[in-house]
Design brief:
By secondary structure, the chain is mainly alpha-helical. 76% of the residues lie in helices and 0% in strands. The relative contact order is 0.12.
Amino acid sequence: MAGYAWIGFQLLSSEGVTVCLIKNITGIPCPSCGITRAVLLLIGGEILPAILMNPLGCITAVALLILPLWIITDTLTRKNTLALTFLWTEKRIKTKKAVYIPLVALALLNWGWNILKEL
């Protein structure tokens, strides 16, 4: 809910407000800097600028669409498929180098992209 509230605030706000502790202290953007702006660009139908802003924003937007529906479905059917899927995914990421090494590499590339763009 906090994420949806933040996006709503950003849509209504005329000034860009950053809450990134890393950027506020060091002046260097973190790997997730620009995700909110990317989601806002996607909401506005600007797909390429959103991807260029922060590719993780596209993943976040998909999660913002799918996860609430999944939670509602689990609640109505009295199942916990989301929690089980999360635990399964977390276990695979922790135990398989072939999974977590590329994910870490992608996060570092994204961080470099953010620094290069001077977000």
